[in-house]
Amino acid sequence: MRVNLESKHAVYKRQSTRQGISIVHSHRHRTMAESSPPITYITSEELEKHNKPDDMWISIHGKIYDVSQWAHKHPGGQLPLLSLAGQDATDAFLAFHPKSAANRLPSLFTGHHLHNYTVSPLSQDYRTLLHHINSSNLFNPNPFPTLLSLSLIFSLFSLSVLAVLFTQSTFAHMASAAVIGFLWIQSGWIGHDSGHYKVVPNPRFNRLVQLISGNCFAGISIAWWKWNHNAHHIACNSLDFDPDLQHLPFFVVSSKFFSSITSCFYQRKMKFDGFARLLVSYQHWTFYPVMCFARLNLFAQSFMLLFSSKRKVPNRKVEILGMIVFWVWYPLLVSCLPNWRERVLFVLASFAVTGIQHVQFCLNHFSGNVYVGTPKGDDWFERQTRGTLDVSCSSWMDWFHGGLQFQVEHHLFPRLPRCHLRKIAPLVRDLCRKHGLPYNCVSFWKANVLTIQTLREAALQARDVSKPVPKNLVWEAVNTHG
């Protein structure tokens, strides 16, 4: 009986203590509320007005932030912010940034809150899954796969150089060219990953990996890659905002390009003239041959950015120095071949092999849903899933696809190391099924078929002479009737 009384007394004492704490907290809350300025709200319509380069407001968790003056410092570039300006960007912010990025937000807070801010059931489930992945420490960098890949690249590259320098066999020389093309693909995966997250824990070492795998070894500026790729991720499959769909005069994936829409990425009109119509009309035949030389476009884009006076490029001199390294070792290696015939074949072979990667980039998006205009922050999950395509393959083929086989998962969780993408694929598939969204996943062969079908459909529409474009003598010569 005494024990029971003592127990009841202890319970009562704890309850009294809690009540006292509650009273204190309640008093403090009232005091802070009395001293804090009243919360001000703005409507979605008012927020939408702040969508210009010198006036960019975004909403994150219902709070309004002015990123106008900070946009030029944004590591991902100004365009992603401009693409989402004037709307809620919570899901995109959570997808691309670690928790530490939230520490920058208070200094950008306008003091306003979004009126009637709500979160859709899909966004709630997406954020729950994101929290689950974060709690499982899957976002933590694992340097082992990257170091293993770099070791493999260095070893095979050394063997290729030795084969060129110390053998007279044409077959050995061509095999070396193919190996170098293969290594460009593997270095491309590393460069891609390091642009999204730290492939190694140390930031300086991560930056070194970027420069070696991109600029020095592959001849592609990592600064250009990040500028281009961040815009692609934010505006996935937007015809006027996504640079990965803007390939005029060679390719179009939609007849909407026939009206010469303006690229918000390149800041110029993409003219669909007679010459473009000629090339597009046969794009389903020229797709694979052009992909063999698509690397030339990446070289050109890299130089155009690095030597542009209009765009701010972080560490521009270091980027250029890395490019110089590539344009020293590769021509020098080619010049060591015994004759011009082998030199030309060497370049063609290395470019053709790495063309496989350029095909892979296209397979994930060319056949997806497209739209015109800015992306919408309140349908982040839908846009990413409808505009992307997964490629089904066995786990032992993951090295070949470099993570692109889980493109849906990668677009939803771009900071997630590719070694974990296969783990979360079933969770993403279930989430799509729950909300009635398509989860597009086909074989590598079927992905090629869908891409060619998309190109062929646009090509046949381009041949419709009832839709006039500016006259071009080449087009008229090829397509004159009679």
From TrEMBL:
What does the entry list under GO cellular component?
Answer: membrane
Keywords, alphabetical: Heme, Iron, Lipid metabolism, Membrane, Metal-binding, Oxidoreductase, Transmembrane, Transmembrane helix
Q: From the UniProt record, give one GO term of the biological process aspect.
A: lipid metabolic process
Q: What Gene3D superfamilies does the entry give?
A: Cytochrome b5-like heme/steroid binding domain
Enumerate the subcellular locations listed in this protein's record, separating them with semicolons.
Answer: Membrane
What Pfam families does this protein's entry cite? Answer: Cyt-b5, FA_desaturase
Query: Matching InterPro entries, A to Z?
Result: Cyt_B5-like_heme/steroid-bd, Cyt_B5-like_heme/steroid_sf, FA_desaturase_dom, Fatty_acid_desaturase
Provide the membrane topology annotation.
Multi-pass membrane protein
Which residue range or ranges hold the Cytochrome b5 heme-binding domain?
Answer: 39-123
Q: Where are the transmembrane segments?
A: 144-165, 171-187, 208-227, 247-266, 287-308, 320-337, 344-361
Q: What pathway is it annotated to?
A: Lipid metabolism
Q: Which GO terms describe its molecular function?
A: metal ion binding; oxidoreductase activity, acting on paired donors, with oxidation of a pair of donors resulting in the reduction of molecular oxygen to two molecules of water
Q: Which family does it belong to?
A: Belongs to the fatty acid desaturase type 1 family.
Instruction: Write down what this protein is called.
Output: Cytochrome b5 heme-binding domain-containing protein
User: What is the source species?
Assistant: Clitoria ternatea
